[in-house]
Amino acid sequence: MQRRHVLLGATATLSGLTGCISPFTSDGSLRDVNVELRNADDRARTFHLALETEAGVLDWESYRVDVGTDDEVTMTPDRDVSPVALHGVVENFAASVDILGVDDLDEDYCLQFHFWYAHPSDESPQLAQVADTEC
Question: The organism sits in which domain of life (predicted)?
Answer without folding.
Answer: Archaea
